[in-house]
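tmp note - Glycoside hydrolase 123 catalytic domain-containing protein
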Amino acid sequence: MNNRWTVVLCDDLEKIRTHLAPRPLDRRTPLAGRLGQRISFQVAVRPPATAQDRPPGTPSVRVTTVAAHPVVHQVGMVPVQVPTWRDHDEEWIDDIPGLYPDVLLPVRPDELPSAGWNAYWVDLHLQEPGEHQVQVEVEVSGSPVAVEQVPLRVVDSIPRPSRVAHVEWFHADCLAEFYQDDMWSPGHWRAVDSFQAAAADMGVTGLLSPLWTPMLDIAPGRYRTTSQLLDLHEQDGHWEFGTTRLDRWVQGLKRHGFTHFEVPHLFTQWGAEATPRFVVDGEPRFGWGTPATDPSYRGFLEALVPFLRSYLDRAWGGPVLWHISDEPRPEHRAAYAAARSVVADLLVGARTVDALSDPSFLDLVDEPIVATDHVESFLAQGHPARWVYHCVSQCRAVANRFIAQPMTRHRALALHLHGHRAEGFLHWGFNFYRTQFGRRPVDPWQETAAGGAFLSGDAFVVYPGPGRQALPSLRHRALSAAWDDLALWEAVAEVHGDEATRRLLAEDIARGFHTPSPSPARLHHLRSHALTLVSATARPPSGTPSSRHRKSP
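out:
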C-alpha cells in the first residue's frame, strides 16, 4: 500500500482523470510564451492509499516565479452523459459515460480531494522577459510533500491579437433562466458582463447580439425567453426604436475589446419559412404564424434595417455580420431564396453571412460560413470558404470542442485555420443551457449533453458559477491557446514571410481540416520554434494593442 502523496507536473495538453496516471510534463522543453501572454500547466496530486481510501489531509498548491502572476484553479469533474457516438473515430480520451475533467474552479482548500488523481490548473500571466524558473510547492495540512521547479522562457515580444475573427453565439436568455433573474435586471447585466469577459478572454472577437430574441435552436411553434434589446413602438405604420439597453450592450462589447457585431437572423432557422417574434409596445408581433414573405413584415424591415445600419455605423463603427437564415438544406432552397428576396435590397453593401454545408446555395448566400467537414466540397466548386464553423455534426476526423476529446483536438483547430488561410470561425454554443430545440432549461452542472441530443460539451464552453460569474473550462483554455498559436504564426509570417510559417507547419496543415491531431510534443515544438523565430524582433510601438488576457479569476 502506497503511503506517500504522489505529485506529477503535466502540461496544458493533458486531461487528468482520477483513475489513470497522467502523462508527465517534458522537462526538456521549457514552459514558453510571449510577454503579456497567459500560458498554463498542471499539477496532478494523488493521495496515499488508506484502509478506507479516505485521503489523509487536504493538499495545497503554491506556485511562485518572478516572471509571471500565477493563478491556481482546481479542475472539477463533470458528468458526461454522451461522450461520443458509437461509430466514432480514434481521437477520444474515452467513449464511456462518466465523470470527466472540464470546469476550472476556484481552489477550495477545506475540501478533501478524491482518492485518485486530482488536477490543479496553473495559469501564468507572463510579465518579465528572460529565462526563469517556476517553483511548485505542494503541502498537505501544512507539511511539504513535494517541491518542483520548471524552466520558463518569456520572449520579449508583445503579442497582437490574431487576424482570424472568432464569433460565438451568446445566449443571454440562458443566463436569466439559470440565475432566475428578470431579463436585463441588474443581476442579469452582471452575469452578461462576466460571460462577455470570459468570451473575450477566449479570443472571441464577436458575439451574437440579441437585438431581438434569436429564433435559433427552438422547435417550430415554440419561443425562447424574450431577450430583445431594442424597444419597438409603432403607431399608424410609423416605427420608433429605443436603444437604451442596446447602448449599454454595445458599450459592454467595446469595453471588453470585441471587434465584430453579429445581428440575429432575420428569418427562422432551418428553412427560413417564418419570422422572428418581436415585442412591439409590450405585445408580441410576427413569429411562427407570420410567413417570411408577409407584406407586413417587409414593411417593418423597411424601417428596422435602415435604422440599425445607421445606428451601428454610428455607435459601433466596426464589422457587422447580418444573417438571413441558419443552415438551409436543399429542401429549403425556394423558401431561403424567397426570404432573401424580401430583404436583399435593404442589405446592399452590408456583410451577409450564413452557415452552410451545401455548396448548391452558393448563388444565394453572399458569404458562406462553411462546415469544417464540407470545406473540400466548396473548394471543388471554386469557393475559398474563408469562414468556417463546426457543431455537433462535425464529430469525425475534424477538430472540435467536446469534453471527451483530447486537448490536442481542440488546439488543432488553429493549425487548420492557419493552413486554410481562414478569415473567421463561428460556433453556436458559448453558453447554451437548454435541451435540443429549447424544450426546457438544463443545469449544465448536471447535464452536459443538451438532454442527450448533443455530444457533451457541444452546447457550452463556460459554466455559470456562484455570484453570476462565468467559470472557464479546459476547453476554454485550449481555444484561448489556439488563438494565441494563430497570433504567433502570424507574427512569424510578418518577420520571416508567409512561406517560413508554412514550412514550419507543413506536415500539420497538409491534411486541411482533417485529423489526426498533432501530438502534445509536436504542438510544444511548434510553439517553441515559432517563439525562437520571433524572439529577436523588436517590441511593437507604445500604444499597440497587446494581449487580450486578463488575470484569471
